[in-house]
Design goal:
single chain; alpha/beta; five-stranded mixed sheet; three-stranded mixed sheet
């Protein structure tokens, strides 16, 4: 599952189809940014609890508001970013994750979890698994929308959203041996957006991060499908000599934009969920 901030609600709509109706059992759950949040919460549920995992994740999203994710800094608001490490104070999100993400349940579920984050000092991209001792902090680091939400102090450094680097959840799943991968991409096929009459720096920053991270995952899906095509038709080597393998791919993404990354208003969340469910009826496939 990709990044996208509030557009993670679109992923929940897709999961209504895959988890709520199809009862799809996933062995591996991978995500960056808000995808890391959704993946980690689903990873608390073991085999046989697929429907419950969707129900509880939806209930969590149904209770979200912008205030439950971030707030303006006291007195100075966004201007405090001149001396603060982020435009907004995302302490509410940190409290939510530390309260609701049960690390013990993740470890006992039998699910493989992979979330990615970036070290702001070294630029290193790192993948954290279900057995990482500071899993809550790793999930928070992955979901720290660059510049807008607080980076996370982890292992002596500050970490931020994994979507800022050219590594995606698709690669993490393949590295774990996945042969079937379902992908939810919040980026619209049509990347156009209505430009405000007087766009400010906040709008430009949010828009730039969206375009960068979304295109990375879209490109990776295309590359994975192209590798599959080569493997299907290249008969020059016996199958057992190839270090690669065919991977069945299924992708759901919106045709047009579904919302703003930092708008967690309940009506927008409901609309994005409905759109995700609608789009999940006709996924793009590749093998």
């Amino acid at each position: 599952m990709s990044g996208g901030g509030a557009k993670g609600a679109y992923q929940v709509g897709v999961l209504r189809k895959w988890l709520g109706e199809e009862k799809k059992e996933y062995d591996i759950l991978c995500g960056v940014s808000v995808g890391a949040l959704n993946a980690s919460f689903l990873a608390m549920y073991g085999p046989g609890f697929t429907g419950q995992s969707y129900t509880d994740l939806k209930a969590l999203w149904d209770g979200l508001t912008t205030a439950s994710i971030y707030r303006k800094w006291p007195f100075w608001g966004e201007a405090a970013a001149l001396w603060k490490p982020s435009v907004y104070d995302s302490t509410p999100l940190q409290t939510l994750v530390r309260t609701r993400l049960d690390v013990a349940k993740v470890g006992a579920s039998g699910k493989k979890l992979r979330v990615g984050a970036v070290d702001l000092e070294s630029g290193e991209y790192r993948v954290f698994g279900e057995d990482y001792r500071h899993l809550q902090e790793a999930v928070l680091a992955s979901s720290s929308f660059p510049a807008m939400l607080l980076p996370i102090w982890l292992e002596g450094s500050r970490w931020t959203d994994g979507g800022v680097r050219t590594v995606t959840p698709i690669k993490a799943a393949i590295d774990l041996g996945a042969t079937e991968i379902d992908v939810v991409l919040c980026a619209a096929k049509d990347q156009s957006s209505n430009l405000p009459a007087k766009p400010n720096a906040l709008w430009v920053a949010e828009r730039s991060v969206d375009l960068m991270g979304d295109q990375i995952i879209a490109d990776d899906f295309q590359v994975a499908c192209e590798v599959n095509e080569v493997l299907k038709h290249d008969m020059t080597l016996p199958w057992w000599s190839s270090p690669r393998r065919l991977v069945a791919m299924r992708l759901v993404r919106p045709e047009h934009g579904v919302g703003e990354s930092l708008d967690f208003s309940p009506d927008k969340i409901r609309a994005m969920m409905e759109k995700g469910y609608e789009d999940a009826q006709n996924p793009t496939t590749g093998l």
